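My current task is to audit a protein record that another person submitted. I have pasted the whole thing underneath without changing anything:
***
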Amino acid sequence: MREGFDLDEELKKLPHKPGVYVMYDEQDVILYVGKAVDLHNRVRSYFRANIGRGPWIDRMVSMISYFEIIITDSELEALVLENNLIKENHPKYNTMLMDDKTYPFIKVTLGEEYPRVVFSRDMKKDKSRYFGPYTSAASVKDTIELVNTLFRLRTCRNNVTNGVKTKDRPCLNYHMGRCMAPCQGNVPVEEYADQLREALEFLDGRYDDILKDLEKRMQEASEEMNFEKAAHIRDLMASVRACVQKQKITDSGQSDRDILAIAEEGENAVAQVFFIRSGKMIGREHFFMKVTEDDLAVHIGDFIKQYYVGTPYIPREIFVQCKIDEAGVIEDWLSSKREGRVYIVAPKKGQKEKLVELAYKNALQVLKQDSERALREEKRTLGAVKEIGDILGIEGISRVEAFDISNISGFENVGSMVVFEKGKPKKSDYRKFKIKTVAGPDDYACMREVMTRRMSHGGYPDLFLMDGGRGQVNIALEVLKEFGLDIPVCGMVKDDHHRTRGLYYDNKELPIDRNSEGFKLITRIQDEAHRFAITYHRSLRSKDQVHSILDDIPGVGPGRRKILMKHFESIDELKDAGIDRLASIDGIPRNIAEEIHSFFHSDMVE
């Protein structure tokens, strides 16, 4: 299990509520996303022994390092959210990715002069209004039939225009009293709109009167011994209740927005952010906060300013619990960063307000049950980074890049670069290097090449961390000087057992407490850099790619490699050779000479 994650304690804290659970491995990769009517019972079931789950699930459970939950207000919301998260993250152990058409919608074609209420498998960005998605296609069809019958809406696909007769005679629905027959040109738009307005209110959930009428009709049918009719009305009522059940996970507006809510208790607070993209909730993050005053609006404003200063994407809308001070100024700032208008909204009713409330419920859940874990996580990440900064006398460290050099043999050496941001690994920024200019195990020369290749691509960190001590630090500082850069470089000083005993910085060895979170973070970074380099070695060996660097040059095979090795004593000498000199060697045509020269003088970053 993940450090600081007490499985037994976390299982005890699980609520008896519907929601979604997300299983992670030790690399923070999502293994599985599932839904539950009761999170407490469902999640606990995974960790019971000998219950016959099968080898596939047993293997998944053995890989779980920790889990997270998202509370919803209904099983329907949990189901839709589960689907969104599966499609966004593609977890390995989810056996099937459900397509959008799995969930039907009720579509009201508001773009038409005489709108219809129809069944739809898609939710498009058009003038229509959508209700759903729903879990039962049969319930949707029953509800559409009831709506069209009750409010006498048209079901045909004809292009009906006010005052124009489009059909010679009305269809059977008109004669059965189920349609107003606007196709006959005798139904004013305003009259039809009144009926449609009532239908929309019904679909919005204001259906009590209709259900009471249906229940009365069911009882009458039962008293008349017409049990088949009574059963039909009973099923129809169940379908209506299923379809008008509110859910907030999918937004028919298809917009991009963040939903932000903060739960507070004393000086502790948790901010929960839901990410809505293209109308679908695709994920969330929560953040532990320390607050010093009792003012929610201030805390929301402060969080927005601190959070969005470092996010790569800013949505068009940010929903919050209450109006905040300086909203206009903050909106202008976010709009300039987004290069498009941004709105901070405090919704007071409807689906939007319910979504903010759902974010608050999850923030409160985290605050109540996960505050200790959040504090531990903050201590081992941001707290550890601050400890390192205090030792070095550097403020504001966020991004750390660490390097490791590993030797294979001959011309082959490899280097690795791992990146940690705010104390957590950022694997998308990891880089591996196949050394091109160093023959033999010369770590300093390899580090010079790796740093040179790294520095040519910009985007610099707040701190470079070298696996070695003074020697590697000096190499890195020389490369930085060549690029005209002043970035702190810190080395790790080893004892006789090759264990880190201190840090080398600014020509001094600084002691570090081996029991501190800062030391533990350095160890994790060091181990990760080494692991990444070793993994690269293994992949090269498994593909039988551990060979001379010359074999990587197009057109240079074993024969030409021998020729070059006879003429040049080192890779550096070969690298410095011009095209004319290379082409003058017997067995090296000019086009191959050009390939060799281009290989050593092109961009060296992989």
Q: What stands out?
A: Confidence is low (pLDDT under 50) at residues 96-101. The first strand starts at residue 19 and ends at 24.
